[in-house]
Specification:
Strand order of the largest sheet: 1-2-3
CATH superfamily: Response regulator
CATH topology: Rossmann fold
Number of helices: 3
Distance between the termini: 23 Å
Shape: globular
Structural class: alpha/beta
Oligomer: single chain
Helix content: 40-55%
Order of helices and strands: EHEHEH
Radius of gyration: 12 Å
CATH class: Alpha Beta
CATH architecture: 3-Layer(aba) Sandwich
Length: about 80
């Protein structure tokens, strides 16, 4: 697959979303990654940015936040 945007949770079995972001962007440099996590602390946000995610949303964000993040990712 060659997705334009990947939306995924940070906390996943086998491979966490931070590591998965790094792998996705290494294989598909043009892809954009939006991460979601119940752990919305500064450390997790910093890790997401360092991995190359274009957006980070805490779970429980307002309904429109995910749509806004995807629009940001695709440049709208």
């Amino acid at each position: 697959l060659r997705p334009d945007v990947v939306v995924m949770d940070v906390n996943m079995p086998l491979l966490d979303g931070i590591s998965a972001t790094e792998k996705i962007l290494a294989a598909l440099p043009g892809a954009k990654v939006v991460l979601i996590s119940v752990d919305a602390g500064q450390e997790r946000l910093s890790q997401s940015e360092a991995a190359g995610a274009v957006a980070f949303l805490p779970k429980g964000s307002p309904k429109g936040a995910l749509i806004d993040a995807v629009h940001l990712a695709v440049g709208r």
